[in-house]
Every structure is written in C-alpha cells, then in structure tokens.
C-alpha cells in the first residue's frame, strides 16, 4: 500500500488532501488555517531541511512524495526533490501554470526585491499581493509612497502603510470595489497562476494600471509533473 506525504498549503493541495484516506499525511508549514476535517493525518511545521525530510520519509515509511506547495516555495520544493531522491521514493509535483499577459496588460517583470523597489519608484500607491514579504520592508517606504499590503496575517498599520488581512479567493466585483476605493496606481504580484487571485489582474487591465510581476523561481524536475490537481488525482487512482 502506498503511503503518501503531501506537501501543501495551496488550495490545490487541500483538494488533493480531501481525497486521501487514513495513513496518508498532509504537511503544512503552519501559516494560515489548519484543516480539521480530513481523513488523512495533518502535520504542521518544518522538517529541518532536506536531511530532516529524508529521515521523516524513511521513519514514516513514506512511498510517494507529492509536492503541491506554492509555485514560489522554491526552497521547500528543492528539499523535497533532494530528500525523495536520497530516500529512493518517487517525487511528484503539481506545477500550476503561471498567468500569461493579455491584450492591454502592462507587466513590468522583476527578479527580486531590489528590482521590484526600483520599478515602483515612479508610483505613489501600490497594492502589494506578495504575502508577508513586504512586512519586512515597511521602514523602507519612500516618503512619496503609501502602501497597501494584502496578506493572510493581521499586522498593525503604520503611518505609511495599511495591512489588509484577507484570504482568497477574491471575486471580480470585490476587487473592483477595493481598487475604486483605494485608487491604487500599480499592483505588485507574484505570477501564482490559478483563478483564486486572478481578478486583481483583470481589474488592473480594466483600469489601465501597470503590474510589477515577480518572476517565478526555478523549481526542481519531478518524476511526474501535473498542471491540474484533477490530473494528479487520476494518476493516483490509476496507480492503486
């Protein structure tokens, strides 16, 4: 019998977890809400790098690792690939396709925080949708800017930033209302892909706003890669 270790944290991962029975393990880093209605076991917390993950795989007799982490969780994916190879178990990965620019889009691609802040220099009111990372830079906000940072965790506002704790999916009409109320002049985003947070890009296009887009990191090759959770579930069923 296969014993699956599912590395997750995304909505796609939770959809997969809901199809796993007792004996399998759904692992979360610990941010956000921890589901309590699953048949499989739920593990919260890190493993201690690739070596710790390798030990866990061996100690728990895991026979398949599924990486359904966020497309920007490059370190976790690298650890999972390395640990799976060392433990001689298959490594499958859900690789959600990124968004593609459409007619009317003005995307400014950046590789890191330094390039991002340089690209933002001409703007006054950016909406950050990068998660927690901007919270570490609130003391670097230029005098002419006021930031809105949307992330999962509540955090105190500052004189130059408002922190909006919110969890997707975000509907188009809700995004339209937020943009109209706040009058953003630029959107800052990861190229996460999927439909849950895509509406902000639709509204940016409607309003003629540029998007500063953080490029995706390089991810390790997997033994099998899937673009949709449904395809991965079909493969699991076929392998039983």
From TrEMBL:
Keywords: Cobalamin biosynthesis, Oxidoreductase
Any one GO molecular-function label of the UniProt entry: precorrin-6A reductase activity
InterPro entries: Precorrin-6x_reduct
Gene Ontology biological process terms in this record: cobalamin biosynthetic process
PROSITE patterns cross-referenced by the UniProt entry: COBK_CBIJ (PS51014)
Pathway this chain belongs to: Cofactor biosynthesis; adenosylcobalamin biosynthesis
Record-linked PANTHER family: COBALT-PRECORRIN-6A REDUCTASE
Protein name: Cobalt-precorrin-6A reductase
Natural source organism: Paraburkholderia ginsengiterrae
């Amino acid at each position: 019998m296969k014993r699956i270790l599912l590395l997750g944290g995304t909505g796609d991962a939770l959809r997969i977890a809901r199809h796993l029975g007792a004996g399998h393990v759904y692992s979360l880093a610990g941010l956000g809400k921890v589901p309590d209605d699953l048949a499989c076991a739920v593990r919260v917390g890190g493993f201690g790098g690739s070596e710790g993950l390798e030990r866990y795989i061996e100690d728990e007799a895991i026979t398949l690792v599924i990486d359904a982490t966020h497309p920007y969780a490059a370190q976790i994916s690298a650890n999972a690939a390395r640990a799976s190879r060392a433990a001689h178990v298959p490594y499958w990965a859900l690789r959600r396709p990124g968004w593609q620019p459409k007619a009317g889009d003005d995307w400014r691609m950046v590789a890191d925080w330094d390039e991002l802040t340089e690209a933002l220099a001409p703007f006054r009111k950016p909406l950050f949708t990068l998660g927690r990372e901007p919270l570490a830079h609130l003391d670097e906000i230029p005098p002419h800017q006021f930031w809105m940072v949307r992330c999962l965790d509540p955090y105190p506002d500052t004189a130059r930033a408002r922190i909006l704790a919110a969890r997707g999916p975000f509907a188009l009409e809700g995004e339209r209302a937020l943009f109209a109320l706040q009058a953003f002049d630029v959107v800052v985003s990861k190229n996460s892909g999927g439909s849950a947070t895509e509406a902000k890009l639709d509204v940016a296009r409607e309003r003629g706003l540029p998007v500063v887009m953080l490029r995706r990191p390089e991810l390790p090759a997997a033994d099998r890669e899937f673009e949709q959770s449904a395809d991965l579930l079909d493969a699991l069923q076929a392998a039983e």
